[in-house]
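Section 3.1: Structural characterization of target chains.
Under the original work plan, the team committed to producing a structural model for every single-chain target entering the pipeline before any wet-lab resources were allocated. The record below documents one such target. The sequence was received from the expression subgroup and is listed exactly as submitted; it comprises 300 residues.
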Amino acid sequence: MAGMPEVERVVMLVDDMPSDVDFLVHALDQEGYTVLVASSGEAAVRLMDLSVPDAILMDAVMPGMDGFEACRRIKAVDAYAHVPVIFMTGLAETEHVLAGFAAGGVDYVVKPVRIPEVLARLATHARNARMARLSREALDIGGHGVIMLDAQGRIAWQSPQAIGWLSDLFGRPADAAAWLQALIEDPSRRAGQTLPLRDGRSLHLQPLGPAGMGETLFFLSVRLPGMKHVTGSNLSSLTRREAEVLSWVAKGKTNRDIADILGMSPRTVNKHLEHVFEKLGVETRAAAAALAIREQEVRG
């Protein structure tokens, strides 16, 4: 929109020979990025405490702390875990590529880097990370949380609200991750599980299924004392019309779309959704859709 300021884009460039990548700094500057430069893995980790970038271009092989270890340390801090790390390396062997992904990297480019390729990959990963962060923050505002486990059963990222809840329940992130992994592997708990919090409320953890690359999403919501646990029996309490509306919500349709499909007004669709939310004990379309999708998978 005309007149609105552009969102500042910040990228950290980590290389033990900064003079060798002056051309890359110049290209990023020309593209509108603010560039932070670190000459070692240790410096990159320290710099994160001063400014959190939208993405990191990380040299893989450096003296002292290499790029893989620096990435692991950055990803171990919840406040930084969402930042995508793209490795720059002259090593094209499979084991080095896999090491980068295992350390938490999202992508890699081979040196000598090609500017158009770097810019394209950087723009994509920075945009995705920013949208994911905004989505997590929006969930927190709504009193919900999200957790993602990676293919190794580790917490890849979690919303700030989820961090507090899991700390209350489990203490160490590794203990929380082990419990969530067990929740995935136990078919009897596919509908999720509710655990008591210290303040008298309870926390419901709902697996949402795979999210790609071996990752699994969890949806977290807090229940007040006396709020019923949501199971398939709650879904069966819906009327035929309510079930139809929920089915189309789960398919991503808007209220207006659903109104056109079912031959009713958008106001009537909204009224049905109010009843659905009340019966299922949820507050958002996303939560209701997740329950509907999970029930279909269980029955299937």
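Strands lie at 9-14, 33-38, 55-59, 85-89, 107-110, 144-149, 155-158, 193-196, 202-212, 215-223.
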